[in-house]
Amino acid sequence: MKEKLLELIGQISDIETLFHKSSGIGTPQVEIIYDVQEFKLWLQAVKFELTEIHKRTKEEFIRDTLNDIRMNFRGWHDRDDFNTLKGDLTAIKDNIDSYYPQDKSSLKAGKVLENTAMKNPKIFISHSSKDVDYATQLVTLFEDMGLNDDQIFCSSVPGYDIPLDKDIFEYLREQFLQYKLHVIFVLSPNYYDSKISLNEMGAAWALRTNNTSILLPGFDFSQMEGVIGKDKISIKLDKSDDEMKDKLNQLYSNIVEEFGLTKKRDVIWERKRDSFISEIKKMREC
User: Which of 80, 168, 202, 245 makes an SS bond possible with 45, Cβ 3.0 to 4.6 Å?
Assistant: First the structure.
């Protein structure tokens, strides 16, 4: 989206302040940025927007910029790589209308198509493949809330995953473009070690999707990094039963409203909610 890309380009000065000196022993110090989580997410968001342009236009300058992003930022030449990217993005900004050619009538139609209120809602469970057991329990929880298989995407759970012969990254991109997503971030050290997971986080931030963070047992609020920060209320799966019940009740109410579901009688929902908590406890004890 034109406005989002311009917003990301406008953040270059703030992102540049994240450079810091390398701390290698016995080697010359250089300015690096590749290891900063906020930079990683910003870069993924930029890549997401440029990929959308390239798919539409096949424009060589956009292709070359994407190739630079993929090949660069490994530490040693971060400052030069950043200056190159900054120049590329500035050039794209100066010629932004050429990448989004629209007359008034098409612009109006585009706004209608882009209106998230017109898209069907869908749960996107963003997680590391190493945390598949927890993701599976979350799929069951959303099923118990009343969602069907067309309303949940979870790449690690059969029936909710990426169809055979589909390109992984293209399919993920389609999910963000075609649905009004509610992204469930299943956060753990594994999540922040996964490039695919960080891509999903960056895309969710770039497109301002609704989101809920769920912290796996042993992962603390202080460990949350990047654009999905610790300042937002999250669900922590190793808190007391009362606190988990309260947070899950709130999540259920939000999902009922968001998807237009018929709310179950309290005794039915509470049994399903407590079953989820019980399964999580078993997993914590293993």
Answer: 202
Same domain, 158 and 271: yes
Q: Which tens digit of pLDDT belongs to each residue from 182-225? A: 999 999 999 988 888 887 888 787 777 889 999 999 998 888 87
Q: Is residue 162 part of a domain?
A: yes
Is 107's pLDDT higher than 70? no
* DSSP H or E stretch at residue 16: helix 12-16
Same domain, 23 and 65: yes
Q: Are residues 18 and 153 in the same domain?
A: no
Q: What are the structure tokens assigned to 94, written together?
A: 């100066």
What is the reported pLDDT for 187? 94
Whether 184 contacts 123, CB under 8 Å? yes
Arithmetic mean of pLDDT over the chain: 85
CA distances for 188 relative to 33, 109, 193, 200, 234, angstroms: 23, 41, 9, 15, 13
| pLDDT of res. 1 | 72
Q: Which domain holds residue 235?
A: 118-285
What is the number of structural domains in the chain?
2
In one letter, which amino acid is 45? Answer: A
Q: Which of 27-36, 103-112, 167-176, 275-284 has the highest mean pLDDT?
A: 275-284
211 in the same domain as 69: no
